[in-house]
Design goal:
The longest helix has 36 residues, at 3-38. The protein is 70% helix and 6% strand. It is rod-shaped. It has helices at residues 3-38, 40-45, 53-85, 106-113, 124-137; strands at 89-90, 97-99, 102-104. The chain has 2 domains: 3-87; 90-137, no CATH class.
């Protein structure tokens, strides 16, 4: 699966988390107002009840403030998670790549995960070092 599709899948999943939070807080706000409209305390506890719209408004303001704080914190955490998921773990000793809990050789990783063929070569820095090593041996 291409990396772009994986990233968009995680972003959609992150968006769904934010939508679930929004749904939950919306339910709390609706229940707060239904308490005043439907007289839940009167029906549940048989207490005298007079609608208090200021109380419902205050509850709504508090819920919205908590919702905003939770929403921003969750967005920040999701952004950090997406950032960390972009890193590719490579063993410092054998250069194997960790992908989905499986350690693959670099060539195997590129050929199976990206449908990319690899070949071997030598960078200019390594070539220079090897030439110097060979010259030192002579």
């Amino acid at each position: 699966m291409p990396i772009g599709k994986v990233k968009s899948m995680f972003r959609k999943k992150g968006d769904s988390i934010l939508w679930i939070e929004a749904f939950g807080f919306s339910v709390l706000i609706i229940l707060s107002w239904l308490t005043e409209f439907a007289r839940f305390p009167h029906f549940l506890f048989h207490e005298a009840f007079a609608p208090n719209w200021n109380r419902a408004l205050l509850r709504t303001v508090v819920i919205v403030l908590v919702w905003a704080w939770v929403h921003l914190a969750t967005k920040r955490l999701l952004k950090r998670l997406h950032y960390l998921e972009e890193f590719l773990r490579i063993c410092g000793w054998c250069r194997k790549v960790c992908h989905d809990g499986e350690w693959l050789g670099l060539e195997q990783y590129f050929s199976t995960k990206f449908d990319t063929r690899t070949t071997h070569g030598m960078c200019p820095d390594c070539l220079k070092k090897k030439v110097e090593e060979i010259a030192a041996l002579k």
